[in-house]
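Structure in, sequence out. Go:
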């Protein structure tokens, strides 16, 4: 299939992060309060994404999708940055009360793979910049992840294991997938320190 001008094929890492139980959280709030909570959350997540070299692709309800590795031809860096960003977001939001009163927890998923990149969209803020099944995989991983964890696929783990310690999880059949997917939980900093200290 021919590739359109201004579009390139590249391996990137995609991060999805959302608020656990968002619908219940906002069910009895006034719409103005819901917007204030979302804007506060989006601002904090977007700041961490930028600090880790990622680009926010879109906001979907309470979910944030970000892409890493666009500026590099080395997928290892993008994968490690995406996972590190997911962990940093959870650390930054731990115990924080959004909109002044709502303490939240989050969950995140990271998948790595080949996408088609719309170069103009990537340069113009991000919306609609990547297309590929890896986007859906990242969203499925985020939905599967337990509270306050970052769950990644095997490709992400293989690219980033030198920088991130992981706990292997049982393979799972994600929604829309015919075969099980290898899953790994990224360990937070304190757990990583303990694991690495006991490695031979």
């Amino acid at each position: 299939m021919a590739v359109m001008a201004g579009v390139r094929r590249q391996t990137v890492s995609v991060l999805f992060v959302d608020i656990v139980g968002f619908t219940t959280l906002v069910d009895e709030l006034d719409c103005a309060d819901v917007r204030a909570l979302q804007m506060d959350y989006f601002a904090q997540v977007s700041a961490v994404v930028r600090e880790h070299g990622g680009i926010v692709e879109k906001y979907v309800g309470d979910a944030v999708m970000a892409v890493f590795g666009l500026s590099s031809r080395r997928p290892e860096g993008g994968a490690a940055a995406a996972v590190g960003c997911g962990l940093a977001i959870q650390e930054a939001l731990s115990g924080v009360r959004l909109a002044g009163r709502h303490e939240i927890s989050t969950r995140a998923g990271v998948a790595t793979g080949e996408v088609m990149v719309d170069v103009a969209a990537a340069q113009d803020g991000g919306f609609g910049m990547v297309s590929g099944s890896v986007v859906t995989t990242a969203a499925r991983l985020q939905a599967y992840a337990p509270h306050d964890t970052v769950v990644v696929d095997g490709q992400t783990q293989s690219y980033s294991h030198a920088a991130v310690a992981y706990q292997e999880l049982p393979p799972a059949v994600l929604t829309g997938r015919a075969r099980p997917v290898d899953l790994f939980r990224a360990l937070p900093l304190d757990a990583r320190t303990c694991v690495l200290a006991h490695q031979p």
